[in-house]
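Worked example

This section walks through a single chain of length 538. The input is the sequence exactly as stored; nothing has been trimmed or padded.
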Amino acid sequence: MGVTALVAATGRGRVSAATPSSYPDWIPASTKPPKRGGVLNRASVWDPPVIDPRHTQSIGLFQFAGLTSSRLIRYAFPEEANSTNDVTLKGDLAESWQSNADHRVWTFKLRQGVKWQNLPPLNGRELVAADVKYCYEQYAKEGVQAFTFQEIEGMETPDKHTLRVHLKTPNTLFPQNVAESVTVIFPREVLEEDGDLKKRLIGTGPYILKEHTRKVRVVLQRNPDYYDKGRPYIDEYVILSTPDFATRKAAFRTGQSDILQVASLSEVEVVRKTNPSAVVQEYKNVLAPFGLALAQDKPPFNDVRVRRAISMAIDRQKQVDTVYEGHGIPGWGVPYFYYQDTAPTLKDLGQWWQYRPEVAKKLLAEAGHAKGFETTLFYYEYFPEMTSQVQIVQQDLKKNLNIDVKITKLDYTTYYGRYVDSKWDGMSWGFQSGHAVGLDERTYMYMHSKSTKNFFRVNDPVIDELTIKLRRTPDRAEQRAITKKIVDRELDQVLRMWMPYDAGFFLYQPHLRNMAALALRRTDGYGSPATTRTWLEK
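Given that input, the structure is written out below as C-alpha coordinates.
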Protein backbone atom coordinates (compact mmCIF):
# COMPACT_ATOMS: atom_id res chain seq x y z
CA MET A 1 0.00 0.00 0.00
CA GLY A 2 1.37 3.39 -0.95
CA VAL A 3 1.60 6.33 1.38
CA THR A 4 -1.35 8.16 -0.16
CA ALA A 5 -3.64 5.19 0.20
CA LEU A 6 -2.52 4.50 3.74
CA VAL A 7 -2.96 8.08 4.84
CA ALA A 8 -6.47 7.99 3.46
CA ALA A 9 -7.10 4.74 5.29
CA THR A 10 -6.24 6.41 8.59
CA GLY A 11 -8.68 9.20 7.91
CA ARG A 12 -6.09 11.88 7.33
CA GLY A 13 -5.45 14.46 4.67
CA ARG A 14 -2.88 17.15 4.15
CA VAL A 15 -3.56 20.42 5.90
CA SER A 16 -1.50 23.57 5.66
CA ALA A 17 -1.39 24.58 9.30
CA ALA A 18 -1.79 23.13 12.74
CA THR A 19 -5.36 22.23 13.54
CA PRO A 20 -6.38 23.92 16.79
CA SER A 21 -7.75 21.69 19.51
CA SER A 22 -10.54 22.77 21.82
CA TYR A 23 -9.75 19.99 24.26
CA PRO A 24 -7.80 20.63 27.47
CA ASP A 25 -4.35 19.18 28.09
CA TRP A 26 -4.92 19.31 31.83
CA ILE A 27 -7.82 17.67 33.61
CA PRO A 28 -7.88 18.64 37.30
CA ALA A 29 -8.54 16.10 40.00
CA SER A 30 -12.13 15.46 40.99
CA THR A 31 -13.30 17.39 44.06
CA LYS A 32 -15.90 14.77 44.91
CA PRO A 33 -15.33 12.05 47.53
CA PRO A 34 -13.89 8.95 45.82
CA LYS A 35 -16.01 5.83 45.44
CA ARG A 36 -14.78 2.34 46.14
CA GLY A 37 -15.34 -0.65 43.84
CA GLY A 38 -15.86 -1.53 40.23
CA VAL A 39 -13.76 -2.89 37.40
CA LEU A 40 -11.54 -0.83 35.12
CA ASN A 41 -11.14 -2.30 31.63
CA ARG A 42 -8.63 -1.25 29.01
CA ALA A 43 -7.86 -2.63 25.55
CA SER A 44 -4.08 -2.32 25.28
CA VAL A 45 -1.75 -2.22 22.29
CA TRP A 46 1.02 -3.75 24.36
CA ASP A 47 1.79 -7.18 25.73
CA PRO A 48 4.69 -7.85 28.11
CA PRO A 49 7.56 -9.75 26.44
CA VAL A 50 8.52 -11.04 29.93
CA ILE A 51 7.40 -10.14 33.45
CA ASP A 52 10.90 -10.16 34.95
CA PRO A 53 11.63 -6.45 35.59
CA ARG A 54 15.36 -7.09 35.41
CA HIS A 55 15.15 -8.01 31.76
CA THR A 56 12.85 -5.52 30.09
CA GLN A 57 11.89 -1.85 30.16
CA SER A 58 8.93 -2.58 27.91
CA ILE A 59 5.79 -0.61 28.45
CA GLY A 60 4.05 -3.97 27.98
CA LEU A 61 5.24 -4.90 31.47
CA PHE A 62 5.25 -1.51 33.13
CA GLN A 63 1.67 -0.71 32.16
CA PHE A 64 0.91 -2.81 35.27
CA ALA A 65 4.20 -3.60 37.12
CA GLY A 66 4.02 -0.17 38.72
CA LEU A 67 0.74 -1.29 40.28
CA THR A 68 1.93 -4.62 41.64
CA SER A 69 5.21 -3.22 42.91
CA SER A 70 6.57 -0.10 44.60
CA ARG A 71 9.71 2.01 44.22
CA LEU A 72 11.69 3.97 46.77
CA ILE A 73 10.52 7.28 45.28
CA ARG A 74 7.94 8.21 42.67
CA TYR A 75 6.87 11.22 40.67
CA ALA A 76 3.78 13.27 41.52
CA PHE A 77 0.40 11.79 40.58
CA PRO A 78 -2.01 13.95 38.57
CA GLU A 79 -3.95 15.04 41.65
CA GLU A 80 -0.69 16.18 43.28
CA ALA A 81 0.80 17.94 40.25
CA ASN A 82 0.46 21.63 39.38
CA SER A 83 0.84 21.10 35.61
CA THR A 84 1.44 18.31 33.13
CA ASN A 85 5.19 19.09 33.27
CA ASP A 86 5.43 18.82 37.07
CA VAL A 87 8.24 16.36 37.89
CA THR A 88 8.24 16.80 41.65
CA LEU A 89 9.50 13.75 43.54
CA LYS A 90 7.31 12.09 46.18
CA GLY A 91 8.04 9.30 48.62
CA ASP A 92 6.85 5.79 47.85
CA LEU A 93 8.59 3.21 50.06
CA ALA A 94 10.94 5.97 51.24
CA GLU A 95 9.49 8.74 53.39
CA SER A 96 12.60 10.94 53.11
CA TRP A 97 16.02 11.02 51.45
CA GLN A 98 19.13 13.18 51.55
CA SER A 99 22.72 13.17 50.35
CA ASN A 100 26.04 14.07 51.87
CA ALA A 101 27.90 17.16 50.70
CA ASP A 102 29.45 15.68 47.56
CA HIS A 103 26.36 13.67 46.50
CA ARG A 104 28.12 10.33 46.69
CA VAL A 105 26.21 8.99 49.70
CA TRP A 106 22.41 8.95 49.73
CA THR A 107 20.38 7.96 52.79
CA PHE A 108 16.78 6.81 52.47
CA LYS A 109 14.43 6.49 55.45
CA LEU A 110 11.83 3.82 54.70
CA ARG A 111 8.16 3.89 55.53
CA GLN A 112 7.40 1.56 58.46
CA GLY A 113 4.76 -1.15 58.36
CA VAL A 114 4.81 -1.79 54.61
CA LYS A 115 3.89 -5.41 53.89
CA TRP A 116 4.63 -7.66 50.95
CA GLN A 117 1.47 -8.98 49.34
CA ASN A 118 -0.07 -11.89 51.20
CA LEU A 119 1.05 -14.57 48.77
CA PRO A 120 3.53 -17.42 49.33
CA PRO A 121 6.43 -17.32 49.94
CA LEU A 122 6.16 -13.76 51.29
CA ASN A 123 2.86 -14.23 53.16
CA GLY A 124 2.57 -10.59 54.04
CA ARG A 125 5.85 -10.14 55.93
CA GLU A 126 7.16 -6.60 56.47
CA LEU A 127 9.38 -4.99 53.87
CA VAL A 128 12.71 -3.84 55.33
CA ALA A 129 15.77 -1.98 54.07
CA ALA A 130 17.61 -5.25 53.42
CA ASP A 131 14.95 -6.08 50.80
CA VAL A 132 15.74 -2.94 48.83
CA LYS A 133 19.47 -3.56 49.17
CA TYR A 134 19.09 -7.12 47.86
CA CYS A 135 16.90 -5.98 44.94
CA TYR A 136 19.32 -3.27 43.85
CA GLU A 137 22.20 -5.75 44.04
CA GLN A 138 20.32 -8.10 41.69
CA TYR A 139 19.58 -5.30 39.23
CA ALA A 140 23.31 -4.53 39.14
CA LYS A 141 24.23 -8.15 38.32
CA GLU A 142 22.32 -8.52 35.06
CA GLY A 143 19.61 -7.14 32.84
CA VAL A 144 18.62 -3.83 31.33
CA GLN A 145 18.85 -1.94 34.63
CA ALA A 146 22.41 -3.08 35.32
CA PHE A 147 24.07 0.12 34.12
CA THR A 148 21.95 2.23 36.50
CA PHE A 149 22.70 0.14 39.57
CA GLN A 150 26.33 -0.62 38.81
CA GLU A 151 27.15 2.93 39.83
CA ILE A 152 26.48 1.79 43.40
CA GLU A 153 29.72 1.04 45.21
CA GLY A 154 28.06 -0.42 48.27
CA MET A 155 25.01 -0.24 50.54
CA GLU A 156 24.45 -0.25 54.30
CA THR A 157 21.35 -0.91 56.38
CA PRO A 158 22.11 0.75 59.78
CA ASP A 159 18.65 -0.30 60.92
CA LYS A 160 15.76 -2.11 59.28
CA HIS A 161 14.19 1.08 57.94
CA THR A 162 17.32 2.92 56.75
CA LEU A 163 19.19 2.33 53.49
CA ARG A 164 22.47 4.12 52.84
CA VAL A 165 23.74 4.00 49.25
CA HIS A 166 27.39 4.77 48.43
CA LEU A 167 27.96 5.71 44.78
CA LYS A 168 31.21 5.28 42.88
CA THR A 169 31.02 8.87 41.68
CA PRO A 170 28.91 11.91 42.65
CA ASN A 171 25.40 12.03 41.20
CA THR A 172 23.05 14.82 42.18
CA LEU A 173 20.30 13.16 40.12
CA PHE A 174 20.39 9.71 41.75
CA PRO A 175 16.94 10.04 43.44
CA GLN A 176 15.41 10.59 40.00
CA ASN A 177 16.93 7.32 38.84
CA VAL A 178 15.32 5.27 41.60
CA ALA A 179 12.01 7.02 40.96
CA GLU A 180 11.79 5.75 37.38
CA SER A 181 8.89 3.41 36.80
CA VAL A 182 11.18 0.50 35.90
CA THR A 183 13.00 0.40 39.27
CA VAL A 184 10.36 -1.64 41.06
CA ILE A 185 11.29 -3.58 44.21
CA PHE A 186 10.95 -7.36 43.92
CA PRO A 187 11.36 -9.95 46.70
CA ARG A 188 14.36 -12.10 47.48
CA GLU A 189 12.26 -15.18 48.19
CA VAL A 190 10.75 -15.48 44.71
CA LEU A 191 14.06 -15.03 42.92
CA GLU A 192 15.75 -17.59 45.15
CA GLU A 193 12.93 -20.14 44.88
CA ASP A 194 12.29 -19.84 41.14
CA GLY A 195 15.75 -18.84 39.94
CA ASP A 196 14.16 -15.99 37.98
CA LEU A 197 11.12 -13.71 38.00
CA LYS A 198 9.41 -15.08 34.90
CA LYS A 199 6.47 -16.75 36.62
CA ARG A 200 5.47 -14.58 39.56
CA LEU A 201 5.33 -10.83 40.08
CA ILE A 202 4.84 -10.12 43.78
CA GLY A 203 5.39 -6.74 45.33
CA THR A 204 4.14 -4.22 47.84
CA GLY A 205 1.97 -2.28 45.37
CA PRO A 206 -1.74 -1.46 45.37
CA TYR A 207 -2.71 -4.39 43.14
CA ILE A 208 -2.00 -8.13 43.13
CA LEU A 209 -1.33 -9.88 39.83
CA LYS A 210 -4.23 -12.34 39.66
CA GLU A 211 -3.76 -13.53 36.06
CA HIS A 212 -1.33 -13.06 33.24
CA THR A 213 -2.17 -14.94 30.06
CA ARG A 214 0.31 -14.02 27.39
CA LYS A 215 -1.21 -12.10 24.46
CA VAL A 216 -4.67 -12.42 26.04
CA ARG A 217 -5.06 -10.44 29.26
CA VAL A 218 -3.71 -9.27 32.57
CA VAL A 219 -5.98 -9.14 35.61
CA LEU A 220 -5.08 -7.13 38.71
CA GLN A 221 -6.93 -7.42 42.00
CA ARG A 222 -6.99 -4.83 44.76
CA ASN A 223 -4.38 -5.42 47.49
CA PRO A 224 -6.24 -5.11 50.83
CA ASP A 225 -2.93 -4.73 52.68
CA TYR A 226 -1.57 -1.82 50.67
CA TYR A 227 0.23 0.64 52.91
CA ASP A 228 -1.77 3.67 51.70
CA LYS A 229 -4.92 2.79 53.62
CA GLY A 230 -8.20 3.15 51.72
CA ARG A 231 -6.46 2.98 48.35
CA PRO A 232 -6.68 1.86 45.64
CA TYR A 233 -10.34 2.57 44.99
CA ILE A 234 -11.03 0.22 42.05
CA ASP A 235 -11.40 -3.49 42.88
CA GLU A 236 -10.14 -4.98 39.62
CA TYR A 237 -8.19 -3.77 36.59
CA VAL A 238 -8.38 -5.88 33.40
CA ILE A 239 -5.94 -5.17 30.57
CA LEU A 240 -6.88 -6.88 27.31
CA SER A 241 -4.10 -7.46 24.78
CA THR A 242 -5.44 -5.75 21.66
CA PRO A 243 -2.74 -4.88 19.13
CA ASP A 244 -5.22 -3.85 16.42
CA PHE A 245 -6.31 -0.21 16.65
CA ALA A 246 -9.70 -0.79 15.04
CA THR A 247 -10.48 -3.39 17.70
CA ARG A 248 -9.39 -1.04 20.49
CA LYS A 249 -11.56 1.70 19.07
CA ALA A 250 -14.54 -0.64 18.81
CA ALA A 251 -13.98 -1.78 22.39
CA PHE A 252 -14.13 1.82 23.61
CA ARG A 253 -17.17 2.66 21.55
CA THR A 254 -19.07 -0.30 22.97
CA GLY A 255 -18.02 0.38 26.55
CA GLN A 256 -15.74 -2.65 26.82
CA SER A 257 -12.70 -0.44 27.29
CA ASP A 258 -12.54 2.67 29.47
CA ILE A 259 -9.59 4.42 27.79
CA LEU A 260 -8.59 5.01 24.18
CA GLN A 261 -5.62 6.84 22.73
CA VAL A 262 -5.96 8.25 19.22
CA ALA A 263 -3.41 10.19 17.22
CA SER A 264 -5.48 12.90 15.61
CA LEU A 265 -8.27 15.37 16.12
CA SER A 266 -10.30 13.86 13.28
CA GLU A 267 -10.20 10.47 15.01
CA VAL A 268 -11.42 12.09 18.21
CA GLU A 269 -14.43 13.45 16.36
CA VAL A 270 -15.13 10.07 14.73
CA VAL A 271 -15.31 8.42 18.15
CA ARG A 272 -17.35 11.22 19.68
CA LYS A 273 -20.06 10.68 17.08
CA THR A 274 -20.97 7.49 18.91
CA ASN A 275 -19.63 8.51 22.33
CA PRO A 276 -20.47 12.21 22.73
CA SER A 277 -20.02 12.11 26.51
CA ALA A 278 -16.44 10.80 26.31
CA VAL A 279 -13.94 13.01 28.13
CA VAL A 280 -11.07 14.11 25.87
CA GLN A 281 -7.57 15.15 26.90
CA GLU A 282 -5.10 16.66 24.45
CA TYR A 283 -1.63 15.29 25.13
CA LYS A 284 1.15 17.88 24.95
CA ASN A 285 4.38 16.24 23.79
CA VAL A 286 7.63 17.23 25.45
CA LEU A 287 9.82 15.01 23.29
CA ALA A 288 9.71 12.47 20.46
CA PRO A 289 10.20 8.87 21.53
CA PHE A 290 10.77 7.54 18.02
CA GLY A 291 13.39 8.23 15.41
CA LEU A 292 15.44 6.80 12.58
CA ALA A 293 18.15 4.79 14.32
CA LEU A 294 21.26 4.20 12.24
CA ALA A 295 24.00 1.66 12.84
CA GLN A 296 26.32 4.61 13.35
CA ASP A 297 29.12 2.44 14.67
CA LYS A 298 29.59 1.14 11.12
CA PRO A 299 29.94 2.59 7.59
CA PRO A 300 28.31 4.46 6.02
CA PHE A 301 26.44 5.82 9.05
CA ASN A 302 29.58 6.50 11.12
CA ASP A 303 30.20 9.43 8.76
CA VAL A 304 28.48 12.57 10.08
CA ARG A 305 28.04 13.79 6.48
CA VAL A 306 25.89 10.75 5.73
CA ARG A 307 23.78 11.31 8.85
CA ARG A 308 23.32 14.99 8.06
CA ALA A 309 22.47 14.21 4.42
CA ILE A 310 19.80 11.69 5.41
CA SER A 311 18.36 14.10 7.94
CA MET A 312 18.11 16.92 5.37
CA ALA A 313 16.55 14.64 2.76
CA ILE A 314 13.55 13.91 5.00
CA ASP A 315 10.61 16.29 4.87
CA ARG A 316 9.54 16.38 8.51
CA GLN A 317 6.98 19.12 7.99
CA LYS A 318 5.23 16.89 5.45
CA GLN A 319 4.93 14.21 8.09
CA VAL A 320 3.57 16.67 10.63
CA ASP A 321 1.05 18.03 8.13
CA THR A 322 -0.15 14.82 6.54
CA VAL A 323 0.30 12.16 9.19
CA TYR A 324 -0.46 14.23 12.28
CA GLU A 325 -2.81 16.80 10.73
CA GLY A 326 -0.52 19.62 11.80
CA HIS A 327 -0.76 18.65 15.47
CA GLY A 328 2.58 16.85 15.81
CA ILE A 329 6.02 18.06 16.83
CA PRO A 330 9.03 17.88 14.46
CA GLY A 331 11.00 15.76 16.94
CA TRP A 332 13.72 16.15 19.57
CA GLY A 333 15.00 13.77 22.20
CA VAL A 334 15.46 15.46 25.61
CA PRO A 335 12.35 16.85 27.38
CA TYR A 336 12.45 20.53 26.49
CA PHE A 337 11.42 21.73 29.94
CA TYR A 338 14.82 20.67 31.23
CA TYR A 339 16.58 23.35 29.12
CA GLN A 340 14.01 25.93 27.93
CA ASP A 341 10.51 27.12 28.71
CA THR A 342 8.76 26.48 25.41
CA ALA A 343 8.73 23.62 22.93
CA PRO A 344 11.24 23.99 20.05
CA THR A 345 10.05 24.66 16.51
CA LEU A 346 11.51 22.92 13.47
CA LYS A 347 13.64 26.02 12.79
CA ASP A 348 15.07 25.83 16.33
CA LEU A 349 16.53 22.39 15.61
CA GLY A 350 19.21 23.83 13.34
CA GLN A 351 20.42 23.53 9.77
CA TRP A 352 20.75 19.74 9.57
CA TRP A 353 17.07 19.27 10.44
CA GLN A 354 15.67 21.44 7.64
CA TYR A 355 14.39 19.87 4.42
CA ARG A 356 17.04 20.77 1.84
CA PRO A 357 17.37 17.90 -0.64
CA GLU A 358 19.97 19.58 -2.87
CA VAL A 359 22.31 20.26 0.04
CA ALA A 360 21.72 16.70 1.23
CA LYS A 361 22.71 15.33 -2.18
CA LYS A 362 25.98 17.27 -2.16
CA LEU A 363 26.80 16.08 1.35
CA LEU A 364 26.22 12.44 0.43
CA ALA A 365 28.41 12.84 -2.67
CA GLU A 366 31.18 14.34 -0.52
CA ALA A 367 30.91 11.27 1.68
CA GLY A 368 31.54 9.06 -1.37
CA HIS A 369 27.97 7.93 -2.01
CA ALA A 370 26.91 10.05 -4.98
CA LYS A 371 24.95 7.12 -6.43
CA GLY A 372 23.27 6.27 -3.15
CA PHE A 373 23.29 2.82 -1.55
CA GLU A 374 21.03 0.03 -0.35
CA THR A 375 20.07 -0.56 3.29
CA THR A 376 17.40 -2.12 5.46
CA LEU A 377 14.93 -0.83 8.02
CA PHE A 378 12.81 -2.81 10.48
CA TYR A 379 10.03 -1.52 12.71
CA TYR A 380 7.01 -2.38 14.79
CA GLU A 381 3.76 -0.52 14.14
CA TYR A 382 3.11 1.05 17.53
CA PHE A 383 0.24 2.97 15.92
CA PRO A 384 -1.08 3.12 12.32
CA GLU A 385 0.52 6.49 11.59
CA MET A 386 3.96 5.01 12.11
CA THR A 387 3.67 2.93 8.94
CA SER A 388 2.85 6.09 7.00
CA GLN A 389 5.94 7.79 8.41
CA VAL A 390 8.20 4.85 7.57
CA GLN A 391 6.96 4.88 4.00
CA ILE A 392 7.36 8.65 3.65
CA VAL A 393 10.98 8.34 4.79
CA GLN A 394 11.56 5.48 2.35
CA GLN A 395 10.21 7.61 -0.50
CA ASP A 396 12.15 10.74 0.53
CA LEU A 397 15.46 8.86 0.68
CA LYS A 398 14.88 7.19 -2.69
CA LYS A 399 13.79 10.39 -4.40
CA ASN A 400 16.41 12.70 -2.95
CA LEU A 401 19.47 10.49 -2.36
CA ASN A 402 18.83 7.29 -4.34
CA ILE A 403 19.02 5.31 -1.10
CA ASP A 404 17.02 2.08 -1.45
CA VAL A 405 15.50 1.10 1.88
CA LYS A 406 14.07 -2.41 2.25
CA ILE A 407 11.44 -2.33 4.98
CA THR A 408 10.50 -5.19 7.31
CA LYS A 409 7.56 -4.95 9.71
CA LEU A 410 7.91 -7.15 12.80
CA ASP A 411 5.72 -8.23 15.69
CA TYR A 412 6.33 -6.38 18.95
CA THR A 413 8.33 -9.02 20.79
CA THR A 414 10.67 -9.74 17.86
CA TYR A 415 11.15 -6.03 17.16
CA TYR A 416 11.78 -5.14 20.80
CA GLY A 417 14.31 -7.90 21.36
CA ARG A 418 16.24 -7.24 18.17
CA TYR A 419 16.36 -3.49 18.73
CA VAL A 420 17.21 -3.47 22.43
CA ASP A 421 19.81 -6.22 22.05
CA SER A 422 21.36 -4.24 19.18
CA LYS A 423 21.16 -7.24 16.84
CA TRP A 424 20.77 -5.21 13.68
CA ASP A 425 22.58 -3.32 10.92
CA GLY A 426 21.37 -0.60 8.60
CA MET A 427 18.37 1.27 9.98
CA SER A 428 15.66 0.73 12.54
CA TRP A 429 12.65 2.82 13.44
CA GLY A 430 14.17 3.19 16.87
CA PHE A 431 12.94 4.44 20.21
CA GLN A 432 14.21 5.76 23.46
CA SER A 433 12.42 3.96 26.24
CA GLY A 434 9.39 5.96 27.26
CA HIS A 435 9.71 5.19 30.95
CA ALA A 436 12.23 7.88 31.72
CA VAL A 437 11.11 11.06 33.43
CA GLY A 438 14.40 12.05 35.03
CA LEU A 439 17.11 14.19 33.44
CA ASP A 440 19.93 11.73 34.17
CA GLU A 441 18.07 8.90 32.46
CA ARG A 442 17.28 11.08 29.41
CA THR A 443 20.90 12.21 29.01
CA TYR A 444 23.66 10.15 30.64
CA MET A 445 21.81 6.83 30.63
CA TYR A 446 20.53 7.13 27.05
CA MET A 447 23.50 8.84 25.40
CA HIS A 448 26.75 7.98 27.19
CA SER A 449 28.85 5.67 25.05
CA LYS A 450 29.24 3.08 27.84
CA SER A 451 25.57 2.88 28.76
CA THR A 452 23.65 -0.29 27.96
CA LYS A 453 20.56 1.91 27.41
CA ASN A 454 22.28 3.76 24.57
CA PHE A 455 20.08 2.12 21.91
CA PHE A 456 20.96 4.69 19.23
CA ARG A 457 24.66 3.75 19.61
CA VAL A 458 25.80 7.29 20.38
CA ASN A 459 29.59 7.38 20.72
CA ASP A 460 30.65 10.99 21.09
CA PRO A 461 33.36 12.19 23.55
CA VAL A 462 31.73 15.61 23.90
CA ILE A 463 28.42 14.04 24.90
CA ASP A 464 30.23 11.74 27.34
CA GLU A 465 31.93 14.70 29.01
CA LEU A 466 28.82 16.87 29.19
CA THR A 467 26.54 14.17 30.54
CA ILE A 468 29.00 13.36 33.34
CA LYS A 469 29.36 17.05 34.17
CA LEU A 470 25.57 17.39 34.29
CA ARG A 471 25.05 14.70 36.92
CA ARG A 472 27.72 16.29 39.12
CA THR A 473 26.07 19.73 39.00
CA PRO A 474 23.52 20.46 41.78
CA ASP A 475 22.52 23.97 40.66
CA ARG A 476 19.32 23.93 38.58
CA ALA A 477 20.30 26.90 36.40
CA GLU A 478 23.64 25.32 35.59
CA GLN A 479 21.89 22.03 34.86
CA ARG A 480 19.69 23.79 32.28
CA ALA A 481 22.71 25.38 30.61
CA ILE A 482 24.60 22.07 30.38
CA THR A 483 21.52 20.26 29.12
CA LYS A 484 21.16 22.82 26.33
CA LYS A 485 24.76 22.14 25.29
CA ILE A 486 24.03 18.40 25.19
CA VAL A 487 20.97 18.97 23.00
CA ASP A 488 22.85 21.33 20.67
CA ARG A 489 25.66 18.79 20.24
CA GLU A 490 23.20 15.98 19.56
CA LEU A 491 21.42 18.02 16.89
CA ASP A 492 24.63 19.20 15.24
CA GLN A 493 26.07 15.70 14.95
CA VAL A 494 22.67 14.13 14.19
CA LEU A 495 23.42 11.48 16.80
CA ARG A 496 19.77 10.50 17.13
CA MET A 497 17.58 11.28 14.12
CA TRP A 498 14.22 12.12 15.70
CA MET A 499 11.06 11.93 13.66
CA PRO A 500 7.81 13.86 14.06
CA TYR A 501 5.53 12.55 16.74
CA ASP A 502 2.22 13.17 18.38
CA ALA A 503 0.75 11.19 21.25
CA GLY A 504 -2.48 12.81 20.16
CA PHE A 505 -5.48 12.57 22.40
CA PHE A 506 -6.91 10.40 25.15
CA LEU A 507 -10.56 9.54 25.43
CA TYR A 508 -11.97 8.42 28.75
CA GLN A 509 -15.37 7.02 29.55
CA PRO A 510 -17.33 9.69 31.42
CA HIS A 511 -17.40 7.74 34.68
CA LEU A 512 -13.59 7.78 35.15
CA ARG A 513 -12.08 10.14 37.71
CA ASN A 514 -8.41 11.11 38.23
CA MET A 515 -7.19 9.21 35.16
CA ALA A 516 -5.56 12.07 33.26
CA ALA A 517 -2.10 11.66 31.76
CA LEU A 518 0.94 13.76 32.64
CA ALA A 519 3.99 14.51 30.51
CA LEU A 520 6.10 11.34 30.25
CA ARG A 521 3.64 9.56 32.55
CA ARG A 522 0.62 8.27 30.68
CA THR A 523 -1.64 6.59 33.17
CA ASP A 524 -2.28 3.82 30.63
CA GLY A 525 1.48 3.23 30.33
CA TYR A 526 4.55 3.95 32.44
CA GLY A 527 2.48 6.25 34.63
CA SER A 528 0.31 3.32 35.70
CA PRO A 529 0.91 3.81 39.46
CA ALA A 530 -1.38 6.85 39.28
CA THR A 531 -4.25 4.40 38.77
CA THR A 532 -4.04 3.99 42.56
CA ARG A 533 -5.93 7.30 42.77
CA THR A 534 -8.42 6.55 39.94
CA TRP A 535 -12.06 5.82 40.78
CA LEU A 536 -15.32 5.16 38.99
CA GLU A 537 -18.34 7.47 39.31
CA LYS A 538 -21.00 4.85 38.73
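What to look for: Residues 384-401 form the longest helix (18 residues).
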